[in-house]
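Same chain as my last thread, 254 residues:
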Amino acid sequence: MVAMVRVQVDTVAAFMGMQRTVVVLAFDAKGAPMNSGDAIVTISDPDAAAEVGRMVVPVVVGATGRRFTELQLSLQLIGEGEVSIQASVGAASGQAVLHIRTQPPITAALVVDTFTVVEYHATCAWDCPYLYYAPLLKLREPTGSAWATVEGVEITIPGKTTGMCRGSVPYRPGQSLYVSYVDPYPWSNDLFFVSLDGKPVPDGLATARVIVRDVRGAYGTIEASAPIQRMVKDPVFPAPSEAAPFGWECYYGN
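reply #2:
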């Protein structure tokens, strides 16, 4: 019998436009894990957070061979406010609380050195039509005396968006760094866009929106826009040493 339910969710920097993964865990009276795949989940304010995905994950404990399931939900944060996420399995229940905030004010904790999006043809083993769109966003800590951390990046081009991707990229005092490394294998890049039929995206600007936490812990926003560089042949991308080595969690699909 399930005696305890725990709801796990990252409550740090929950801003509108982001997503959160919610994991529901169930335990018996002795603390052994139980199935939570059939948990009933309620969200107190559907105008602030909406369920956009659900998955039951089978788990096997290697040392004991014990098998159970975990329920994982994807929540889209769509409105400001306090949201209670409650889950129940049988008579047991648990909850977590998210404080969802609007986009923070413009900050100068980091500044934009360069921003562009490069459009180029894929190189494939066959005659593929794919067009890739590679965002190149380089930020700099301008004072030379403070730290700052990028915790969210959203790239938008006409007709496509990454949504607000989550991560953590620290900037040392005075450091200049691209927010993402361009992997030679395009499908490994979190911030890329792909046109599978080879049709270019419509005319218009590319935009970037960045969530930054400064050395005092205050959050702010950086915004930038730039034309798309069309049909670049043999594009040259930043070296790994010039870019953040960390990946981003993006949910919208591109």
